[in-house]
Amino acid sequence: MPPLMLYDTWSRALRPFVSIEAGRAGMYCCGPTVYDHAHIGNLRTYVFEDVLRRALVRNGYQLRHVVNITDVGHLVSDADEGEDKMEKGSRRTGESAWTIASRYTDAFVSDWRALNLLEPSIWCRATDHIAEQIAFIVELERGGYVYRTDDGLYFDTGKQHSYGYLARLDRAGLQAGKRVALGAKKNITDFALWKFSPVDVKRQMEWDSPWGRGFPGWHIECSAMSAKYLGTSFDIHCGGEDHIAVHHSNEIAQTEAAYGTRLANFWLHGRFLTLSAAKMSKSNGDFIRLQTLRDRHIDPIAYRYLCLTAHYRSNLHFTWESLYAAQAALNRLRHAYARWRQKNALADARFVARFDAEVNEDLNMPNALAVLWDLVKSDLPDATRRASVDSFDAVLGLGLRDWTPLATEIPEDIQALLDERARVRLEGDWAKSDALRTTLQLRGWQVEDGRDGQRVLPFSRNGAE
Ligand code: AMP
Ligand code: ZN
């Protein structure tokens, strides 16, 4: 296998991946803020991270994968102002912040599993690690990086020459441009480590600390928990591209200040899923989640397939048409795979080598899918194709082995639509034929036009959804 090349945001270059400890790799992925459901944009990032994880395993690494759950301290504004997102969620729904955190954590884990993402070695919640976060801040205080204002403790980025390198931040420019927004902070890039509970409002989530009652800032949880589970210098840190400028820059600052280590050896960032030119965001309230797809009879794995069609370092522009196309491709693949009988056969070495070369070239999954389709269409024996696809699926994670076709009994109303479509096609009414195809899609059936007429395949997985 060629070496695994990964694009490291820190060095802005492709670098061959080598782990700190031979044969083992540690990976930390910033997880969800659980004040609402995850949207499919968030989920794109986790799919990318899952593919990375599978690629590492394929390259022989034993992995320790840590994912955090942010259930306190993420404020509405990245500048550490405004309400805590959890408390805001509580006001929105009338339920306690704790109830909301637990509900949306469960929902997140269920999305995670529906996308066939491998279970992390450790899920860790910020609220379960308050003591570790306080201890970390004490360490920073000892080093002289902390100052106090009326509303909390702040990290003094002015004390750190290297601050913002990951994002190539123009600190002088930022400082000059945003003097007005500075408030009690010394530098525009300073960030909260600990916020005091307001005197006039009772917070639901608050803890005692050496500095007064309050709650941790958002960034400290990741430095504290990654140090606990992976050490203060580990192999790979990931997240979405929005984390580069603030969250990851701040995590790096904290760990470097406390321990003098470079938090992670590789920094990988996934570009955003976009929707109608805007980025998809939880906070504007208008977002698509996995359930929205299921409501349209789209299997979550089809969304996973869609994610694989774009390189993780390119934006993926979401459209329903592209999702239906992904579902159709997945359907075709599943049916082809299910037709190939399982026999003792080896994967085709040439195809596997081509596939691995694409994966190892910074996870070029669109090209890896092209290799997959070349294989499917090849004239290799069925059993060889099946064994090869099994091997690919260890990285693709489409769960092909677990899928079984539904008993394809076509309900009467669907058959009626099909008959109608066959009729309008005979009349050459292609517009009507396309409209009927869409109607069938919305009901969960995919039509394919072959030489012998139309063929219909149900979308749903194992009949489960
Ligand atoms: P959050 O729950 O907001 O803390 O975000 C969880 C993860 O989703 C982070 O890694 C974000 O960088 C990522 N993310 C947020 N919005 C998008 C998007 N539109 N596309 C891809 N990833 C995103
Ligand atoms: Zn983080």
UniProtKB/TrEMBL annotation:
Chain ranges for the short sequence motif 'HIGH' region as given in the UniProt record: 32-42
Database matches in Gene3D superfamilies: Anticodon-binding domain of a subclass of class I aminoacyl-tRNA synthetases, HUPs
All residue ranges annotated as the Cysteinyl-tRNA ligase anticodon binding domain in the record: 409-455
An annotated GO cellular component: cytosol
Alphabetical list of InterPro entries matching this protein: Cys-tRNA-ligase (IPR015803), Cys-tRNA/MSH_ligase (IPR024909), CysS_C (IPR056411), Rossmann-like_a/b/a_fold (IPR014729), tRNA-synt_1_cat_dom (IPR032678), tRNAsynth_Ia_anticodon-bd (IPR009080)
Keywords: Aminoacyl-tRNA synthetase, ATP-binding, Cytoplasm, Ligase, Metal-binding, Nucleotide-binding, Plasmid, Protein biosynthesis, Zinc
Any single biological process term in GO: cysteinyl-tRNA aminoacylation
Motif 'KMSKS' region: chain residues: 279-283
Cofactor(s) required for function per UniProt: Zn(2+)
Domain tRNA synthetases class I catalytic: 17-327
Major site of localization recorded for this protein: cytoplasm
Annotated residues for binding of ATP: 282
A Pfam match: tRNA-synt_1e
Subcellular location: Cytoplasm
Catalytic activity annotation: tRNA(Cys) + L-cysteine + ATP = L-cysteinyl-tRNA(Cys) + AMP + diphosphate
EC number(s) reported in the record: 6.1.1.16
SUPFAM superfamilies registered for this protein in UniProt: Anticodon-binding domain of a subclass of class I aminoacyl-tRNA synthetases, Nucleotidylyl transferase
One Gene Ontology molecular-function label: zinc ion binding
Origin: domain of life: Bacteria
Family statement drawn from the similarity comment of this UniProt entry: Belongs to the class-I aminoacyl-tRNA synthetase family.
Subunit structure, as described in the record: Monomer.
Protein known as: Cysteine--tRNA ligase
Organism: Paraburkholderia phymatum (strain DSM 17167 / CIP 108236 / LMG 21445 / STM815) (Burkholderia phymatum)
Gene from which this protein is expressed: cysS
